[in-house]
Amino acid sequence: MIRWPLEWPVGVALGVAAFLAVRGADPAPAFLALALGLLLAATPPVRDAVERGLGRWGGAGDAPGPASFDDVGGQGTAKRELKEALDFLRLQEAARRLGVRPLRGILLVGPPGTGKTLLARAAAAYTGSAFVSASGSEFVEMYAGVGARRVRDLFERARRAGRDAPGRSAIVFIDEMDVLGARRGSERHHLEYDQTLNQLLVEMDGLGRGGPDEEVTVLVLGATNRMDLLDEALLRPGRFDRVVRVELPDRVGRLEILRLHARDRALAEDVDLEGLARETFGLSGAHLESVLNEAAILALRAGAPAIARAHLAEAVEKVIMGERLDRLPGREERRRVAVHEGGHALVAELLRPGSVAAITITSRGNALGYVRHSPGDDRYLRTRQELADDIAIALAGAVAEELVLGARSTGAQSDLAQAGETARRIVLSGMSRLGAVPEGSVPEGELFEAVRDVLAGEEARVRALLAPRLRVLESLAHRLLEEERLGGEAIAAALREAARAG
User: Fold this and answer.
1) Which residue among 192, 203, 317, 341 is the active-site one?
2) Is 269 part of the annotated catalytic residue set?
3) pTM, whole model, 2 decimals?
4) What SS3 class is residue 369?
5) Residues 160, 107: one domain?
6) 166 and which of 128, 283, 304, 316 could share a cystine (Cβ 3.0–4.6 Å)?
7) Which pLDDT does position 2 carry in this prediction?
8) What is the arithmetic mean of pLDDT over 489-494?
């Protein structure tokens, strides 16, 4: 919610008075109305009532929901760390006896869509605190002092709401913390950013209205995905005392999130949420909720009584790649796309059996076709061989085009960029002929040669894998032209059949 600065009505009133004066009318009534409005606005009860009526900052806390941490899935470690930090609010008497200094702030750090806002709302319910929220962008104004005043008002609102809360405490949640708490001096065009941050530091130190021994305990929960942009003064003990990492969920976490969002949805018997969790590596909780929602929409359009496996598969592709496009390439171009994607899928199945979830030549987003992989177990460390396999799979599309059609196309541009980045990672991780080399110490010429050697070796390996299997590749391309989409089992079956045929 945006709070309007007083400069706006002042400017309007002065403009009206000038207009009346030019027209020969008495401007005194306009000035009298302005003075009366400012007097009323300066009175806290009247100001709060007016702002509540206009839908601005308001005078009470926001709705705390969800009911508990049980409504937040896939963040077991983050929930545990946050609960431990919040116990001083739930056990304030015991904390006082032991001389525990109240925490002033907890910073939630993680990628977008991982549940930072949900965790903050659950924290308010867990501690019986009032919940007051704002976004970092709401404090940024071109008018000097407006942002600082909004910070003061936000904390004052939290204290008022906290007096009526069961725990006599309030949680102030500030999203987009990197906007409000950006490193001072980084914005040279004016000092409004710095003044706003200084006011936040004052409030978090307990030097604002109420002091450190006030009757309502106020805890600041900040959320950001760019911790590197924050001012160092914010991160010292006594301000943000804890940093809680809210990362992308692992396979178990994704399954927990899917089950949470599937509670109130009708699922068909063929739905396998465990399989879906394996196939959605790298998706956040927000993405997973969107998958189930899109699947429900597809089921509604089809008039189905429940969400089926096919709806979920289509929803995953839509969330990852975007909506289907109406553009339909010509027959020859579609054949090239089919050969290209068939090359990716064939090499992936040869190097990592069972890893291909689906292959399609349906246009989505910027892609004319794509292969969706099912990575199995989540991996956070990669060996040299695993990275080399990634490069081989990325290069397979271009090599397949060359072997079957006689020439490559521009469709491999993004694949080459991906392969080059992975090869660079191999070199800078000390897994190339250069040995252990710190980043920045290798001349660009040597780095280029080492990356090219890695790419050339993997291209030769791909050629050796595909050359004896051109019949399988052409058969897959033909089926793709007819059916547009194939499941991963079709690639595995084609390879088994080719092996039996000798």
Assistant:
1) 341
2) no
3) 0.72
4) coil
5) yes
6) 128
7) 41
8) 84
